[in-house]
Amino acid sequence: MGKNLGQQVPLVDYRMTRLTFGVSASSFAANMSVKQNATKYPLTARVIEESIYVDDCITGADIVEGAIQLQGELQNLFNEQNSYFRSGIPRTPPFLSVFLRI
Q1: Best-predicted range by mean pLDDT (20-34, 62-76, 82-96)
Q2: Whole-model pTM above 0.85?
Q3: Could you say which of 5, 38, 66, 73 has the lowest number of CB atoms within 10 Å?
Q4: Among 73, 60, 55, 67, which residue's Cα sits nearest to residue 96?
């Protein structure tokens, strides 16, 4: 209980529900949030752990199907967090057909 001019006033607990950028710990908090939520996507969890720096993720795959799966998982992960994920558009024809449908 807090005191307010001699009266007992209940303390109120406030919690932030948005990530405010411009604060020194913002990028750390954003990365931790992504890493914690990536556990349901095994392929993406590994990539996030190894390939993310501040707010950039640069990665690739050995085969077209793997790259398409990874892009889809990353997109789903960021959509679930209401975060913006902009994927680069590759120039390989199999990818273009997938990206043009999105």
Answers
A1: 62-76
A2: no
A3: 5
A4: 67
